[in-house]
């Protein structure tokens, strides 16, 4: 099958796409948008390239993007290469000292570096940092069983704000630090919500390998295009939301109740999904907002 590009559309159709996007570009100009990228989204090189293009375009039209990334598949791969067994408790990776070193190497040295290099190659300014940078994300250990897995206690966004105001695109690896200087692994969804809430961003966007919230979690054709925080809490209580979606929607709710404008759950397997959600009338995933 041949790839369809913008040149395959009539000039009037191309113009209509730009016209439809214009009011959204005007509305979100100078606003901060935080995008959380799951490790699965980074596996497909073509999809990753499209995402990098989206981020650079957002920055080019005056929107201020922040990227928060995980790296589960990549970490799992490195652990297997090291002959290191891994286990999970309630969806969180048990992290001993050796595992923490591998997590840090993958998040900062591989995944974060790759995102920065891709954005720079497209002409966008990007800088890599982690939650350890100037105590951006302070944590305490969750429990002894999980080891070096942190619970977020505070966000100190001054360094992050400085990067944004300097016109840079921050690429944040989800590691935190305690009062003694010890690093910890953090759930990336939780970190994204906490950062979005502390910064009171316009939008927080989660990319994963599901279309969004489903009224029937086993049927991808039951996508919910919009929901309130109360409706989502009802879905959690009734088991309509389960497994890996729970930390995502909980972090959405936490961010919204700290003043974030809206939260979006999108299918990162769709090329240019961020642009389709932000700059088109119909959108493409699930938008969650407060009741008012």
Description of the molecule:
The protein has 9 helices and 14 strands. The protein is of the alpha/beta class and 292 residues long. The chain has a domain at 30-211 and 263-271: Acetylglutamate kinase-like (Carbamate kinase, 3-Layer(aba) Sandwich), CATH 3.40.1160.10. The strands form 4 sheets. The protein has an 8-stranded mixed β-sheet, sandwiched between helices. The longest helix has 25 residues, at 97-121. Mean pLDDT is 89; it is low at 1-6.
Question: Which short descriptors sum up this protein?
Answer:
two-stranded antiparallel ribbon, 292 residues, alpha/beta, Carbamate kinase, 14 strands, 9 helices, single chain, globular, eight-stranded mixed beta sheet
Can you summarize this structure?
The protein is an alpha/beta fold and 292 residues long. It has helices at residues 11-28, 45-60, 72-81, 97-121, 158-165, 188-199, 229-237, 245-256, 273-279; strands at 32-37, 64-69, 88-89, 92-93, 126-130, 137-141, 150-155, 169-173, 175-177, 183-185, 203-208, 226-228, 262-267, 286-289.
> Per CATH, what is the topology of the domain at 30-211 and 263-271?
Carbamate kinase
User: How does the helix and strand content classify structurally?
Assistant: alpha/beta
Provide the low-confidence segments as ranges: 1-6
CATH homologous superfamily assignment of the domain at 30-211 and 263-271 = Acetylglutamate kinase-like
Instruction: List SSEs in N-to-C order.
Output: HEHEHEEHEEEHEEEHEEHHEHE
The first-level CATH class of the domain at 30-211 and 263-271 is given as Alpha Beta
Number of beta-strand segments: 14
Strand order of the largest sheet: 5-8-2-1-11-13-14-12
Number of helices: 9
Radius of gyration: 19 Å
Our estimate of the beta-strand percent is: 15-25%
Q: Let me know the average pLDDT.
A: 89
Q: What is the CATH architecture assignment of the domain at 30-211 and 263-271?
A: 3-Layer(aba) Sandwich
* Share of helix, binned: 40-55%
Q: What's the main sheet like? A: 8 strands, mixed
Instruction: Give the overall form.
Output: globular
Distance between the termini: 46 Å
